Amino acid sequence: MPAEEDLSRLHCRLDELLESRGMTLTALAEAVGVSLVNLSVLKNDRARAIRFSTLIALCDALECQPGDLFTVGAHGTQG
Amino acid sequence: MTAQTARVLSRTDRAVLRLVQIAAWVGAALTAVTTALNATLPLLQGMGAAPLLVQPELPEPLAGPTEGIAVVSTQSLDTVVFLTGQPTHLTLAMVAALVARSAGVALVLVGIAMLAGRLLRGRAFLQAAQLPLALVLIGAAAGPIVADALEGWVSMGTWQAMGTPAGYGAVAAFNPAAIFFGLVVATLMTVFRVADRAERDADGLV
């Protein structure tokens, strides 16, 4: 099981994807059916886990793959 | 650590929890005071107490029909009798039984007050909730069981010290409800532990 601090290496690229698609977080929340608070948690890299159903809904709404949504930074860095 | 439970509490929930918390603390304090008085007052008057079976003198039935419903004249009443000259160790054991029973009630109330406070402050299922639950478990199960055992011993010892007179008898009580309640609380403790893990897993889940 990864250490808790390792989670900070994961970066969610929701901001970049939203910007490139000219979409707001509110619109995405409506499209995906996830609360704005939860999407904000994800966007600010404060999420500790994501449901597959949320991931699929996000990928559908943003027309991307899971790999486009997340990046993992090197050891000792923040994502 | 986020206070998830605190966020979902409505104003009514908070009011009810606050009321429970205050009532439980007051109840525990009153129990302690009442116990202190009940334990010391008979001692100050030089009396001991013991639970005994007593054959009461029943009043004569009213004159009336000779057939039909009637009270059986020979029966025993399970009651606490106050007596003088009780051996000291039995008097002390009776006081200990009273304290154990009241301490059980007080512990349950303190546990409830602490649980209500924990719920008001934040997450209910934290490991720290195990302490108030343990207090409820000890108070609900151990208190009555210890008290019953001591009272049974006092009853038998007092009856023998009295010379086993006719019309009196020793009494021993056992309260299975205490065991059942203890099992329920022990199960609740496990549920709380599992819920704590589930809550931690769900914290930050999107």
From TrEMBL, chain A:
It comes from Agrococcus sediminis. Residues 14-69 form the HTH cro/C1-type domain. This is Helix-turn-helix transcriptional regulator. The chain crosses the membrane at residues 23-42. The keyword Iron-sulfur does not apply. Gene3D superfamilies: lambda repressor-like DNA-binding domains (1.10.260.40). InterPro entries: Cro/C1-type_HTH, Lambda_DNA-bd_dom_sf. The keyword Phosphoprotein does not apply. GO terms for molecular function: DNA binding. It comes from the Bacteria. Keywords: Membrane, Transmembrane, Transmembrane helix. Coiled coil: none annotated.
TrEMBL record, chain B:
The chain crosses the membrane at residues 16-37, 92-116, 128-147, 167-192. Keywords: Membrane, Transmembrane, Transmembrane helix. It comes from the Bacteria. This is DUF2975 domain-containing protein.
